[in-house]
Design goal:
It catalyses: (S)-dihydroorotate + H2O = N-carbamoyl-L-aspartate + H(+). Its EC number is 3.5.2.3. There is one protein chain. With 431 residues, the chain is an alpha/beta fold. The chain is built from 13 helices and 18 strands. Helices cover 31% and strands 22% of the residues. The protein has a 6-stranded mixed beta sheet. A 4-stranded mixed beta sheet has the order 5-4-1-6, with no helix packed on it. A hairpin with a 2-residue loop joins strand 17 and strand 18. The mean pLDDT is 97.
Length: 431
């Protein structure tokens, strides 16, 4: 069946802006049929979306869905519904599950169950090293054939430089990205917070050089091997500068930045609340501004939420003992639209590019554009709707966010994946 949305504003990637137009998509083929004047578009069902905007749906290449084995934090169903509620039709899940995503049958099981759930599409990221132990390389060929989008030991960096060089050599031949958690543990030593915040709150510090040192090493290794190196959650000025250096040298390096590292700094942490504890830690205001500048100019390619749900009892253990991470799938767009676009710091076209177009292009995924023949991955948003972030209303099982109670603008009304609605505002939680 063909459905046509009339009366709204539709994103035009060529213009880098909205245009007054109708958009029609086919629920059977899953494709966009036409974009233009409604009189020229035949459809069986017509719906007015006056006052709303249509964007290409969002893609997140870095989330933690905790399934298998850690389902007290999140299940595949709750995580993929949360993604759909945030406007995401595709997410890549990191391998630090229990057991880790290091075997073909786990990759296949996640994909199979994800399809059965019918919400956002899930792309497993498999382990760089066997069970993330940093001692031997995983079977990249078999895992890629099973459906792994990329490879990472996220949560840990690969500490052995020689082993990392071997990994990049193999991944270059395979054409798959290495997605690095950049942390030299001989420098970080398990530190919980940025140096200034740690001193203020009486806990352990993680020097910023722990991140930058590993990025520098791996960029040089990527240059030698020709591999695609993707740097996860960049947080420091030196790290952004290194990514810029790599790009200027023609090295195949891409990078992501999280909403929290663009919007928050260590000085926002006023009390010992572990909902503020993330890895890498919230950095200085100077680092935040440098990351924002690097995001605005495209050095930091994409937005990734690093959605990391935890049980409340785990976050209640305090700054030193609590696990790292905060949730972000359901708040990312509104926070960035409110804090960056409405404030005039980043144009809307850069936000759409970073959340939709570029992740698809860099990782070889469908979607990312609204044009005839493209996959109908769309998100309907109300850019005038003000709402308050309430963790109790989340679809994710996680409640760990420092943004609770914050007023934001920009509400996801409906999410369409391959022509079919996977979320509508107000829908019930999956069991």
């Amino acid at each position: 069946m063909r459905i046509r949305w009339d009366g709204g504003r539709v994103w035009d990637s060529g213009l880098g802006d909205f245009m007054e137009a109708s958009v029609a998509f086919d629920t059977e083929t899953g494709e966009i049929v036409a974009v233009g004047h409604p009189s020229a578009i035949r459809a069986e069902e017509v719906r007015s979306i006056r006052g709303l905007c249509v964007l290409p749906s969002f893609v997140d290449v870095h989330v933690h869905l905790r399934d298998p084995g850690l389902t007290h934090k999140e299940t595949l169903a709750s995580g993929l519904q949360a993604a759909a509620a945030g406007g995401f039709t595709q997410v890549a899940c990191m391998p630090n599950t229990k057991p880790p995503i290091a075997r073909v049958e786990i990759v296949e099981d996640i994909i199979r169950r994800g399809e059965a759930i019918g919400k956002a599409e899930v792309h497993p990221i498999a382990c760089l090293t066997v069970d993330q132990e940093g001692e031997a390389l995983a079977n990249y060929e078999a895992l890629a054939k099973a459906g792994a989008l990329g490879f990472s030991d996220d949560g840990r960096g690969v500490q052995d430089g020689g082993l990392m060089r071997e990994a990049l050599t193999k991944l270059a031949a395979l054409g798959k990205p290495a997605m690095i958690h950049a942390e030299d543990e001989s420098i970080s030593r398990g530190g919980a917070l940025h140096e200034q915040a740690a001193a203020r709150l009486g806990t352990t510090a993680q020097p910023g050089s722990a991140e930058a040192a590993m990025i520098a090493r791996d960029i040089l290794l990527a240059e030698e091997t020709g591999a695609h190196l993707h740097v996860c959650h960049v947080s420091r000025e030196a790290s952004a500068a290194l990514v810029r250096f790599g790009k200027r040298r023609g090295i195949r390096v891409t990078a992501e930045v999280t909403p929290h590292h663009l919007l928050l700094s260590e000085r926002d942490i006023q009390r010992a609340d572990a909902n503020w504890k993330v890895n890498p830690p919230l950095a200085s205001e100077e680092d935040r501004r440098a990351c924002l500048a690097a995001f605005a100019d495209g050095t930091l390619d994409v937005i990734a939420t690093d959605h990391a749900p935890h049980h409340p009892d785990e976050k209640a253990k305090g700054m030193h003992e609590a696990p790292f991470g905060m949730v972000g799938l359901e708040t990312a767009f509104a926070l960035l639209y409110t804090g960056l676009v409405r404030e005039g710091l980043v144009p809307m076209r850069r936000l759409v590019e970073a959340m939709s177009e570029r992740p698809c292009r860099l990782f070889g995924l469908e979607g990312g554009q609204i044009r005839p023949g493209a996959r109908a991955d769309l998100v309907l948003v109300d850019l005038g709707r003000r709402w308050t972030i309430d963790p109790g209303a989340f679809y994710t099982k996680g409640r760990n966010t420092p943004f609770a109670g914050q007023s934001v603008v920009g509400k996801v009304i409906e999410t369409i994946r391959a022509g079919r609605a996977i979320f509508r505002e107000g829908e019930e939680r999956l069991s």
